Amino acid sequence: MVDDIQRAPAEVRYSDEIERLLAADTDPKPKGWRLSPRAVRRFILGDASLDVQQKFFGDDPLVARCIVSLMGHQGLMLVGEPGTAKSLLSELLAAAISGTSKLVVQGSAGIIEDHLRYGWNYALLLAEGPSERALVASPILSAMRHGQIARIEELTRCAPEVQDAIISLMSEKTIAIPELGPEVESRAIPGFNLIGTANLRDRGVHDMSSALKRRFNFETVKPIADAQFEKELINRQVAQRMADSPIAPSVPADVLDLVVDVFRDLRTGTTADGASVAIPNSVMSTAEAVNVTHAAVLEAAYLDGGALTAGHVARQLGGTVFKDDPEDARKLRAYVDQIAHPRARGSRAWSAFYKSAKESLRD
Amino acid sequence: MTDRATLAQLRGDLFQADRGLYVVPIRHHSPACAWALSALISEVKPSQVLIEAPADFSEQIPLLLDPDTKPPVALVALLDDAGDRGRVAGYYPFCAHSPEYVAMQAGTEIGASLKFIDAPAATKAMWGQLDGTEPKSLLNEERFNANDYVDALTRATGCRDGFELWDHLFETRLAQPDWRSFFGDVGVYCAGIRAATPAAQIDSTGDTMREAHMARAVKMALAAAGPVVVVVGGFHAPALVGDLDNMPAPRKPDGTCESYLIRYGFQAMDALNGYAAGLPQPGYYHALWDRANTDSDHDLGIDLLTGFATRMRGEGHALSVPAQIEAMRMAQGLAALRGRSHAMRHDLIDGVRAALIKGETATQDIWTTRFQAFLCGDRLGDVPPSAGSPPLVEDVRRRARAHRLDLSDSAQRVRKLDIRRKDSHLAASRFFHAMGLIGSPFAQCTGGPDYLSGAQTALLFEHWHYAWSPQTEGHLIDQAVLGDELPTACLAFMHRERVALIANGQGRDLPQLVDLLVRSLLAGLGAQLDGFLVQLGSDIQNYGTFSSVTVALRRLLFVVQSSGPLGAPETLDLRGVVGAAYGRLIYLCDDLPNTSEEDTEDRLDALRMMNEVLRDCDGIGLDRSLLDTAMDRVALATTNPVILGAILAVCVQAGTRPAAELAQIMEGRLTGVSLDTSNRIGVLRGILHTSPPLLWHADGLLEVVDRFIRGIDEDMFLELLPHLRLAFTRLNPRETDRVAHELAGLLGVQASGLIRHNTQVSDADLADGLRIEKALRASLETDALSNWITGEVSQ
Fold this sequence. Notes:
The complex is a heterodimer.
Chain A (H helix, E strand, L loop, with lengths): L9 H4 L1 H10 L12 H9 L14 H12 L3 E5 L6 H13 L5 E3 L6 H4 L1 E3 L1 H7 L6 E3 L1 H8 L2 E5 L6 H13 L1 E3 L8 E3 L5 E6 L11 H5 L1 E5 L6 H15 L11 H16 L17 H19 L5 H12 L4 H19 L3 H15 L1
Parallel strand pairs in A: 1-8, 1-9, 2-5, 5-8
Antiparallel strand pairs in A: 3-4, 6-7
Chain B lengths: L3 H11 E2 L4 E6 L4 H14 L3 E7 L6 H4 L8 E8 L6 E8 L4 H11 L3 E6 L5 H4 L8 E2 L10 H10 L4 H8 L9 H17 L3 H6 L2 H18 L3 E6 L3 H4 L15 E8 L2 H8 L8 H13 L5 H15 L6 H17 L7 H12 L9 H11 L14 H12 L10 E6 L4 H15 L5 E5 L13 E6 L3 H9 L7 H18 L6 H13 L7 H14 L2 H15 L13 H15 L11 H14 L10 H12 L5 H14 L4 H13 L5 H14 L3 H4 L3 H11 L2 H15 L4 H15 L15 H20 L4 H4 L5
Parallel strand pairs in B: 2-8, 3-6, 3-8, 5-7
Antiparallel strand pairs in B: 1-2, 4-5, 4-9, 10-12, 11-12
């Protein structure tokens, strides 16, 4: 069955690892936790002796802080640029701590309070009146009842009044259900907590109120710091995406170097040799680098029928990353003129990049 | 030397009671080591305590133990390096919890003799890569953090770096009584580090030579009287426990060295530790040490967080009690997760980070920075008066003598310096400027080129008044914390100035920053300004506005093209900054089309300045085509007429647009329908402001203007007159004359014929005039306003 779905949840993908960790786990466990905090850390950061692979890279102390945060009363809020594996981390934490990562609310403008508390099966409601049977529990209510971790993705996409519903829920750790009787409520049992992921930078997101912020510990997940590792990751992901494609030109090493250089320069605001660069508003994450490379590979394979060059990357950069912000176009132009141009003298890849970027900026 | 048996052997070898030899491996500034060492000394009762510190510092031991000496203090060595590096300074700091300092105190108490046994500070082996640009520590402990063995251990323990690992393994054991097993573990740990260090590296860093010095001293001490306690950095311990005979002969010092005891501070120590010596954030370790000595079982973490919260509230930063509690819970939870009995430094920092930050953070967030500053502490030490005058004073005296300045009394003297032709005079001038830079009252420049305002920069001589007054000396003593030598002090001072600019909200004021650059070049700091330049480049890229970048660019180009007093060394990447400024300017061109009313004047001046300084781009290595393309791109998008005129003028001059277009656009503007009269003249004003010759060089431009002015009626003319005057005031007399001639040529007459002279004054007119003047004078005098006529200012 698993083969037929695009992506199985973490607890299924890594079920064997979790089993091994469970068997070897001798450390004390907080109430309601399936694995001990140390085993959770091993699950995420890897443990060679149990053949557990590392799944989250680059910031070990952050993982420790996340685990300890979830042991307390505060929720955990993962923030940071898109494409930095926030959701993956929240999924892994939930899978390891509660054994399920499926109690998730996918935040959007269409979310209403019912999605966070409970709704009704209206056929049953009309037939029987309010009853436990007619009640449709939200993932959060289920998590409270069973002492598990619930996740809210993209919290800042929900309307502020919906976000507000979480405030009292987090302080009281209870949901009142007056429809079932005057004193009926669901109190969270030990093991319950919330992991939110949020994007604070995109346009069209709602600010979190400070009351809500107070109920969460924030952790910023940063882009990958190691250029070499980023290269490998991009290469691997592009190869995965192209796995089903009948033609799949490989990504030459110099083009990959160029992609990583361009993204790192524009992300950090300084080049490796210390020149400063204006940082665009567009997100220059590793995920976007994968998108650009993937699109460039597709263009090379299906439109040009040839090998992938840096020129394809330059063309895709405009469409994939720099979408419609004139300010960003200006920053890209400055980058192309001042950074790419001098580099073009010494490198074939940069020369192709410069020429093609110059052309696509003209129109 | 890595197998278990050898390591077990080492444990035994550290303390050889039969030989009377106790080798104590320590890490500098580690309170846990200090505690165990103090216990060891009171139990072993040695007759000699040998300490790994430069042997030629031994004379400072009595001063270090003086009751008036309050740590943190530092021994600073100034070495006259015979080579090209000039004088270099090295620091050897002590704080109350330094094992070396504790060993000296404990040793003195029991009457042991004390001795420093490392190679003299003046041997090359001690100096490594000191280059005189930054304060350097003589305690090199880089290997505690960058070493394969340490890396492997951090991975195995889940610690993030060597510092956390050290705390995890050793500082958690502070105040435990069993010094034998403690130092045994430190010894094994350090032996592991040593085993992972290639022998060639140990040689090349000078460690072999230093160990030879130490081994010889230990041998001599053993021969004299036992027991002997040897306090050395853990890395050297394995070299001193075995056979002391087969060691290479120690080398003689390579230069001469003066040492001073100076007061020191935790902040300076923390900065020094940034160069990989000892442990960072000394305030935290001091608190650990204090807590161990007061015998309290109160949790230090709670106290530190409470102290931090109190200070933050005092400074006006909101920090709620629940957040404070959550920080502590996090710290304790992390300590438990990481297998520590109580929260250590990294746990506390992580706790603060998790509990206090509400939002997305950059690499270094404000709360972590605040907490780290809190943990760093701000304790300042003290030294007795007998420690003598600080090195900075001595250094300045020495330099002044080298420049043949008379400091024998405090009388004011005069010096005339031929700064462009005599190198020695230029050097003296730089010395004066450097003194001026740190705000010393020592000298005043009474005449000569003023590079700051750009006035009279071609002058050959500088005239100076100078006097070595008590104020001069007092000022230098005050500034002694800045550094031990004038250039170092200047750099520290610049850093302070810069911080002050930022605090005043002027951190983004590019002209001010360029001023600072010019002042430090005059002070001869050229070779050390790399860091400042990199920062300046990034400030320009991030904060420069069109006008501020133009001003900065003009002054930077002036510096680049200067030689002599303002000349910068080749190695200084001034062109990089010029390139950054140029790049920013091009980037900002896209702002020009939407210039607002209030920015118009500034940008108009900037465009004119830009047009002048960038006339010869190739000569200064800039790619003019970038600017031309940008200008050309924004030209027709510009709505502000004045800026449009200026941009068009730049384009026509650069040849990217035909001159005929100027006349065409001008005609359109002048004859078009506009509600605002000033708009009509705007384009003309922009052109005249940027490049007046275009008025007669650009085909048809003058005709268009002439036709327009002749075509309008009297009322319209009067309405336009102020704007026309504003536009034409930019012309200098010669240019006005030229316009008149061109105009006359256009009309087919002589220029003189255009002017109607009116020199005929009748006697009656003259009489009238005199009468009116007399009455006016009388009236002003009556009103006590006669100074309106004389122009004197009333007192």
